[in-house]
Amino acid sequence: MAKGASTLGLAPALTGRDPPQEPSMEPKHLMSPDTFMHEFRLDLEELARLSSVGRATITANPDDPTLQAFMRDCHRVVAMVQEISGRPRNYGVNWFRDDPVQAFRGSTALELVSQGRVKTVITYLESIASGFVG
Any idea where the domains of the chain sit in the sequence? Predict the structure, then answer.
């Protein structure tokens, strides 16, 4: 097993599997902040802090581009974790939210996405899918 692959509970070998494809972002449908907060177990203050928007923006302007981009990025990462691990979506959400990753110096994927570093997380997951760990 590739070093760190157990972080996602991957099968011993992924040979012959293509890395997950990035989900299509078109059309860019609007996501409900309430649904997002429920799925990711966040409250209004946490979502505001993580997405770098004000609490009032979430309730008064849920179609805010910054908020929507953050929620899309989170869903994108969780979908990749689900695809790579072969586990249910809630497993991906739990890993994304709660599991510190050694390659990220102990930060979670959620923390990196909230810092605008979604590409770092995607690259890490791609390296796992291809049998390597960054």
Answer: 30-129
